[in-house]
Write a structure and sequence with these properties.
alpha/beta, nine-stranded mixed beta sheet, 12 helices, about 25% helix, DNA-binding
Amino acid sequence: MKKNLWFLTEERPKKEVLIKVLEKFAKDYEFAVFIDAIRILPILENGKFAFKYEVVGFRCNNVDRVYIKTISGNSSAVDFLIFYQKNEPTLRDKPIYAIEETKTDDSESRNTGVYQRAIKFLFIQTYYPNAKKIMLYYLRIDQKKVATSTYIFGTRLLLTLGVEVLGKKLDPKIFKPFKTIDEIIALKAGMKNAPKGNVPILFTKLDKKIQISGRLFKSGGLSHDPNIGALSLIAAALRRLGWKGEIEITRHGLLQQHVEGGNKFIQIANALNISLQGITISKAVMHKSYWKYDMDGEKLGTIFIHLVAENFTEGYSIFENHAGCEKGYFITKEGKPIALEKYSDKRAYKAGNKKKIISIPDLILIDFGRSEVIDVEGKKYKFRKDGIKELRGFKDIEDRYIKKYYPGFEIIRTVVLFGGVEKKIVELKVGFLLNEQGDLILGVQAPELFKEAIKNLLDFWA
DNA sequence: AAACCAGTGGCTACATATAA
DNA sequence: TTATATGTAGCCACTGGTTT
């Protein structure tokens, strides 16, 4: 009986990522795989979306089908969980891969390129210790020629925990797991000092205690993401290399009242037995389950329309921001990605004029045939009025980018909704609704691209 | 100029408080 | 009782100031 591959993800599945993972899977399992042109098809049952996508356009004798489903994590969860089994994964099943993806190279940010999300691999370790942990770089810029010390330090810590790095070329002579605790301490001690006024990450090794200095306080609480990642990563590596004594964080900047919540760092501190100088850490337990199928988020709607448009019409996305904070690029006619400015007038914004920020849609689609650009704002059904209101704010991005790079195109603004049980749309500004039963509902004034996409999808399954 | 760490920004989800 | 407002946690990426 052939098995299926299941991609469970919090984001929009990207073809480039799917291909990388398929190749990695084939290599690890020594399967032959032939990848043609990947296509992602929403699966319909009785004309309704089954909240499941199928990936086609490749061949592998050991894989029957490849499915994608949208999930959301309960704690600090990785971006993709991959299962290799016949049936749809449940919480009792074990993934073969846990993959965290980033677009950040260390030339852009040391903090986010390596430290910030390391904690995710510590969480996955406690839930699924046998899943292969992968840090996947999906760089849109050239990789930095010479790696920074911080990047080398952080990556070697990840390697020490058994994390594999994909999508980057790493010199195996430099990037290797640490073998001893002293090696970790020595490498950090040899790095450049932190600027004055900052709290440096430094080790003090005593007989029965290793102290690590590092700031954890940020904006009123324990929320300094990069250092939460860095310090828990270091502690995990020390434990992995056999340190049984105390691990104490110093100069963290926290007061007792800041640690009462049991946030992700406190959970990991419990699991790894980390202490905070001068503070008692409360008992905190991790969430019972690592993930759940997402049947709630607005992204279900925008991801659906995005994939239908791209796979069933000639249209495609020139900008996307499904996750709200994901790094987004605007794609020009020539296919060149450009980073968007955040403010129309930065000085005025910093001075307090919050209107000077450039509002961005969740998705921008291009319809070359009809010379239309479609700004899409995604919302949950019950918040549809907010979505309609937000459509008014897209003048800046249209003036600065769309009109400049796509002159002569008509710009359409529309709202895409997910949720509810309604079977019709009243509001003219709503172009498409995917309700929670999987009904596909077009608005009266839906963009032609939407109509074409849904028609082709229905025809495909008819 | 490169590289260090701190801080900011914008979004969602969720829990709780307050108003209708 | 229900709808709306508010606050916190979390997510991911980028910017800023300072030192080397």
